[in-house]
Design brief:
The chain contains ten helices and eight strands. The chain is of the alpha/beta class and 261 residues long. The radius of gyration is 17 Å and the shape is globular.
Length: 261
């Protein structure tokens, strides 16, 4: 079985078709999914999804791309993280690709999330794009390794992956690893220890080959596992088993929840 460790089922392009998406997940042997928060105004809808479905979980956090949105405090995040089925803080981090200018507000927000994760004893879901050096520096300064977590939708070099692994983090691969020109990422996928690896869709974005360019969905996450298995020369069930075990362990979900019935 497979788990989608990062998706956005509350986004309009997926929420309108949720029953069909859940059926497709089941048909593809994708048993669980983690619904990711990107801002506080929309967080209730993310949490509601997790509460309504036994095989869905959720996070709480504010994405670094969201500039004009209420800023969370440490206490805000800790309080929401205590709600049922909230298993992580995030997604959070730094993104210097989409935004420019003085981005100190991103760095302050990132620090707030790490401090909340430490206080709540919940792992972090970290987004970094064109900001690896600052991301790792803040993770070290704020002792992000204490709660641990995952570098989601990883697209950086092996050196960045190794630094994150040294801090105790997991590395999550999305459909990008299936893209023909993602050679550096394919190298990383061959080198990350199996016990520190996750897979995800980041749906509705980044659909894997053979669906590249189409709307993504959790049922497509097995294609990520298939490519990693090919790269490593192992059966796909090896990747499925390892990434599923890692998901339940990292997010401290009772193994009884593996059977969502």
């Amino acid at each position: 079985m497979f788990v989608d460790s990062h998706c956005h089922l509350d986004f309009p392009e997926l929420a309108a078709e949720l029953p069909a998406l859940l059926d497709a997940m089941a048909a593809a042997r994708v048993t669980h999914a983690l619904c990711i928060s990107v801002n506080l105004p929309d967080w209730p809808a993310v949490h509601a999804l997790a509460m309504a479905h036994p095989n869905l979980y959720a996070t709480v956090g504010v994405h670094p791309d969201y500039e004009e949105t209420p800023e969370p405090t440490v206490d805000d995040l800790v309080a929401l993280a205590a709600r049922p089925k909230i298993v992580a803080i995030g997604e959070t981090g730094l993104d210097y690709y989409r935004l420019s200018g003085d981005l100190e507000w991103q760095r302050r927000r990132f620090r707030v999330h790490i401090r909340a994760a430490r206080k709540a004893a919940k792992p972090l879901v970290i987004h970094t794009r064109s900001a690896a050096e600052d991301t790792l520096a803040i993770m070290r300064e704020e002792t992000a390794g204490e709660p641990g977590g995952v570098m989601h939708c990883f697209t950086e070099t092996w050196n960045v992956a190794r630094a994150a692994l040294d801090l105790g983090f997991h590395i999550s691969f999305s459909g990008i690893v299936t893209f023909k020109n993602a050679l550096a990422l394919k190298d990383v996928a061959q080198r990350v220890p199996l016990d520190r690896m996750l897979i995800e869709t980041d749906s509705p974005y980044l659909a894997p080959v053979p669906y590249r360019g189409k709307r993504n969905q959790p049922a497509f996450v097995p294609h990520v596992a298939v490519e990693i298995a090919r790269l490593r020369g192992v059966p796909v069930d090896t990747i499925a088993r390892a990434t599923t075990d890692n998901f339940f362990r990292l997010f401290r979900i009772d193994t009884d929840a593996r059977d969502p019935r």
